[in-house]
Design brief:
The complex is a heterodimer of chains A (505) and B (165).
Chain A (H helix, E strand, L loop, with lengths): L1 H26 L5 E7 L4 E2 L5 E9 L3 E9 L2 E9 L5 E7 L6 E8 L8 E9 L1 E2 L4 E5 L12 E4 L17 E5 H6 L2 H12 L3 E5 L3 H7 L10 E4 L2 H13 L8 H6 L6 H23 L4 H20 L4 E10 L4 E11 L4 E6 L8 E3 L6 E6 L4 E9 L4 E11 L4 E5 L5 E5 L8 E5 L2 E5 L7 E4 L10 H9 L7 E6 L10 E11 L3
Parallel strand pairs in A: 2-9, 5-19, 10-11, 10-12, 12-13, 13-14, 15-28
Antiparallel strand pairs in A: 1-3, 3-6, 4-5, 4-7, 7-8, 15-16, 16-21, 17-20, 18-21, 19-20, 22-23, 23-26, 24-25, 24-27, 27-28
Chain B lengths: L1 H37 L4 H30 L1 H12 L3 H10 L4 H29 L2 H21 L11
The chains are: A alpha+beta (505), B mainly alpha (165).
Chain lengths: 505, 165
């Protein structure tokens, strides 16, 4: 009996580790994840332009993973929770890809019962067109060409969900069936692009759709063109391309609207002056040699503490433009983050501005966090250092309901009427090279603009507004400060303006 | 009797160290302000300031500390070296924060300066004991220090690219 017990014990001792090992191997089996990725616009873009990657993910077991999309110097990262039997779809905006190569890397979280590390890796090549790109999204019909353009035939699913991806193409023709097949996010991106003066021809759109889109186009609606036939569409595009459109304000012009971030420089100059004075006094009054040494060491620690404790706020500048009576205004925004110490800084992206966010400098290495649930960028992360200014650029559009009419009277005074549905706050009226104070006016009310002097035209905001009035230089426009309470919190020093041009009738 | 003598010999070195730091700070702050105004990269100026601080302090150490060690012994020489090196520390912290120079390189350079500040007076002191005559030891230490300073100047190329900008 004793010998058989011993044999059983030995067998059990041999079997148990084996069984345990089998269990561990089973539990640690890597999940099978399917990753497919396609680029918007059938994989076409232009050098230096943003685009969008349509990503589909499926798995055979619940797993937490991180997806990183690397294009040029910018990375978009998203934390995902994949569930078996469900296909997760992401539409990630990617910045300019430089050579056109986009890398996708999926990493599984270590707590998923499986080994951590890169699980899936895909390389995607975005074709870079040297010629302007014409997107042709027609449910029926042959190829459409336009002189000097590279045409790309598109289906509804090739159109992006991020407005920033529209920068890849220079003109778009789409017909009513394709428009009808677009989902909500595609429509929103299309309308944002239209508001930003993107050239779009709507082919055979029914009157209801045309009415709905009336006023949605920027630049006085000249860029959102309805056409009855392909030849008419081509003709309209040719005419539109022949006319110059007001370009969006540049990041450099926006930067001029903010005062240079020199608070840190001033503070450090004072701190160094105080230190040198203290060190000199220590040399004069203390005979013992360790005292000046201690002063220098303490000053170095104090300087380091000063850099870590004082964080100047970021500056946000929003410049928006629209035409009197239009439904939308387009905006360009610029946010500058002053660096203090060498660190990796993580900043939230204001949700209202997240539709199209990117580093102003494409050579700047930035990692964006993409919120898979909301489908937009949530934060940005970058390396910073003292006196290093990182700038993020935003663009988009917002609904607007302001309209004004002006009339120059025989006595030389100007009558201004609020033709919009709501009152407007006090602002400035820029007319024929002159700046006047514009009082708050209720809906439907009038005011007379006399000789009240506004701020001098030398002020940066007024100068920028004057430079952007259409028709220049004798046009009439109103300039109001924007309320940015919703877009910026207390840690952001924000300023914004709305320039409303009065289109001459 | 010794303390005032040490103090008198240390003060010029400490004042030189302070003046060197002040001049570099003035140049760095000025060029950084210009860079901020025209939107260019301020890190290049910070890197140049760091290299200038290392180079000038290194050369000054070679010239002064050997001689101080030979004339007044190791303790006085080391005290003089610390007076030359330490006043630049707050500026080094700031320039390091503003530059892209690796932190390890900055720590290593400052560490090497401190080591040199301790070793060079010891070498000077050794020279004096070896040669047994103060005037001879002083001349030898000065010549050796000048040679070291020249060697440092001519070998600066590989590790001080910002200065050649």
């Amino acid at each position: 009996m004793r010998s058989s017990d011993t044999v059983w014990h030995r067998l059990l001792l041999l079997l148990l580790p084996g069984l345990a090992l089998c269990g561990i191997v089973q539990a640690a089996a890597a999940p099978r994840i399917e990753l497919t990725a396609t680029a918007a616009w059938q994989g076409w873009s232009r050098p230096g332009r943003s685009t969008e990657i349509d990503i589909r993910l499926s798995t055979d077991k619940a797993v937490r993973a991180t997806l990183e999309v690397l294009a040029g110097r910018q990375t978009v990262r998203s934390d995902l929770e994949l569930q078996p039997g469900r296909v997760m779809r992401l539409h990630m905006p990617v910045g300019s890809a430089g050579t056109g190569a986009v890398t996708l890397a999926l990493t599984v979280a270590p707590d998923a019962g499986s080994p951590a590390g890169p699980l899936e890796r895909r390389e995607l090549v975005i074709a870079q067109s040297e010629s302007p790109l014409l997107g042709v999204a027609l449910a029926a019909g042959g190829p459409v060409g336009l002189e000097g353009f590279h045409s790309v035939a598109l289906a509804a699913q090739d159109l992006p969900r991020n407005a920033s991806a529209y920068s890849s193409i220079d003109a778009l023709i789409l017909d009513a069936p394709t428009l009808g097949a677009l989902d909500q996010r595609q429509l929103a991106a299309l309308l944002t692009h239209a508001a930003a003066c993107g050239r779009i021809v709507l082919l055979n759109a029914d009157p209801g759709v045309r009415q709905a889109l009336e006023g949605a186009g920027g630049c006085g609606g000249h860029t959102l063109m309805p056409a009855a036939s392909l030849s008419e569409a081509r003709q309209m595009l040719r005419s539109s391309l022949g006319a110059s459109l007001p370009t969006a304000i540049t990041a450099a012009s926006l930067a001029e609207l903010s005062r240079p971030a020199q608070a840190t420089w001033n503070r450090l100059a004072v701190a160094l002056a105080v230190y040198f004075a203290a060190a000199l006094l220590a040399l004069v009054f203390f005979v013992s040699w360790p005292v000046p040494l201690l002063v220098s060491a303490l000053a170095a620690v104090a300087v380091l503490a000063l850099l870590h404790t004082v964080q100047p706020p970021s500056q946000l500048r929003v410049w928006s433009e629209g035409e009197s009576g239009a439904q939308v205004a387009r905006y360009q925004a610029w946010q500058q983050f002053p660096g203090q110490v060498r660190e990796r800084m993580r900043v939230p992206i204001p949700p209202q501005l997240a539709a199209a966010a990117q580093a102003c400098d494409p050579t700047q290495s930035v990692r964006f966090d993409f919120d898979a649930v909301r489908g937009q960028l949530a934060s940005a992360e970058f390396e910073t250092r003292l006196f290093h200014q990182i700038r993020l650029c935003y663009s988009g559009s917002f609904p607007m309901a302001r309209a004004l009419t002006t009339e120059l009277r025989a006595d030389g005074l100007r009558e201004v009427r609020n033709a919009g549905p709501a009152a407007w706050p006090a602002g400035l009226l820029l007319a024929q090279g002159q700046v006047h104070a514009l009082p708050a006016v209720a809906a439907g009310a009038r005011t007379i603009i006399g000789a009240e002097a506004g701020p001098p035209p030398g002020e940066a905001v007024v100068r920028t507004a004057m430079a952007r009035i259409r028709p220049a230089p004798d046009g009439v426009a109103a300039l109001w400060p924007l309320e940015l309470a919703g877009a910026a919190d207390a840690s952001i020093e924000s300023m914004g303006w709305l320039l409303l041009s009065v289109v001459p009738r | 009797m010794n303390q005032p003598l040490h103090s008198a010999s240390r003060r010029p070195a400490a004042i030189s160290g302070l003046a060197l730091a002040a001049v570099t700070a003035l140049w760095w702050l000025g060029s950084t302000r210009l860079a901020l105004d025209d939107g260019s990269d301020a890190s290049l100026r910070a890197a140049a300031a760091l290299v200038a601080l290392w180079l000038v302090r290194g050369m000054a150490l070679a010239l002064l500390s050997l001689r101080a060690g030979a004339l007044r012994g190791w303790r006085a020489g080391a005290a003089q070296s610390s007076g030359l090196i330490a006043p630049s520390w707050p500026l080094v912290v700031l320039a390091c924060s503003a530059s892209t120079t690796p932190l390890a390189q900055v720590v290593l350079a400052e560490g090497l300066l401190l080591v040199a500040g301790a070793v060079l007076p010891l070498v000077g002191h050794g020279l004096r004991r070896l040669l047994r005559r103060v005037d001879l030891a002083e001349a030898a230490a000065t010549a050796l220090g000048a040679g070291l300073a020249a060697a440092l100047w001519y070998s600066r190329g590989p590790w001080s690219p910002p200065l050649s900008l």
